[in-house]
Specification:
InterPro entries: HNH (IPR002711), HNH_nuc (IPR003615). The strands form 2 sheets. Strands 1-2 form a two-stranded antiparallel sheet. A two-stranded antiparallel sheet has the order 3-4. It folds into 2 domains: 114 residues, no CATH class; 79 residues, Orthogonal Bundle (DNA Binding (I), subunit A), CATH 1.10.30.50. The mean pLDDT is 93. It has 8 helices and 4 strands, in the order αααααββαββαα. Helix 1 crosses helix 4. It is mainly alpha-helical and 238 residues long.
């Protein structure tokens, strides 16, 4: 039974038990088996979470769904992501998820290095991505031999998966497949990052090399860029 303890009082051991239980249920659901959430909740209350109520455990499961949703990873259908989650609790839940190998945080870390970015994107592109990435509203400029920006690999991977091998500029198939079997398209920020554009899916498109260069070098680049807002419904002018 519950003791009235506040949600902030959850210990690391309790959060780890909740994450363990969640990942177990997620595996059951993803395998196509029938998931009995009430039974799994009861098992948790017979163990480490014996001082927690059924309702508090249910809400904690929704917190875990929130974190998975932010990573564009599949979550349990019956546990809708909770709208509000404090940064401290979110950090601790993610730490517990990382300890259970639920995801690799390095794959999601923003980077200004193109080689590192593409390596991260390659891994993320081969996963099932659900939902929409948060992205970066104000990408940080990084100085070096040239100015570059920290970019979210999840945004690039998501945009490429949405395009599914078709250029979002001209509607033609990607010009070729890479050795890994994935179609070759380039991700372009319609409002350039150097012009204070965001690194969000609402400002990024997957283009063939020809259309990408058209955005940068052609005499009609402004008109072509403007046409993308009509062709790609998720785009929002900035």
């Amino acid at each position: 039974m519950g003791t009235g303890k506040k949600s902030e009082d959850w210990s690391d051991a309790e959060l780890e038990a909740a994450v363990d239980g969640y990942l177990k249920m997620l595996a059951i659901e993803r395998s196509g088996q029938k998931l009995n959430k009430a039974h799994e909740n009861r098992l948790l209350r017979e163990g480490v979470l014996r001082e927690r109520s059924k309702g508090s455990i249910e809400y904690r499961m929704r917190n875990i769904s929130t974190e998975l949703n932010d990573l564009c990873l599949p979550y349990i259908v019956g546990y809708v992501p909770a709208a509000h989650l404090g940064a401290g609790v979110a950090h601790r839940i993610r730490a517990a998820m990382i300890a259970k190998d639920a995801f690799n945080p390095d794959d999601y870390a923003p980077t200004a290095n193109d080689q590192e970015l593409n390596a991260k994107v390659l891994k993320l592109e081969q996963q099932e991505l659900v939902g929409t990435p948060r992205g970066i509203e104000k990408p940080q400029r990084v100085s070096g031999t040239t100015y570059t920006f920290l970019r979210d690999p999840l945004v690039k991977a998501w945009v490429l998966k949405q395009a599914n091998g078709v250029c979002e500029g001209c509607g033609q198939d990607a010009p070729f497949k890479q050795p890994n079997g994935l179609h070759f398209l380039e991700v372009h920020h319609v409002k350039h990052l150097a012009n204070d554009g965001t690194d969000l899916v609402t400002n990024a498109v997957a283009l063939c090399p020809n259309c990408h260069r058209r955005c940068h070098h052609s005499t009609d680049r402004e008109e072509f860029a403007a046409s993308l807002y009509t062709k790609v419904k998720r785009l929002k002018p900035e």
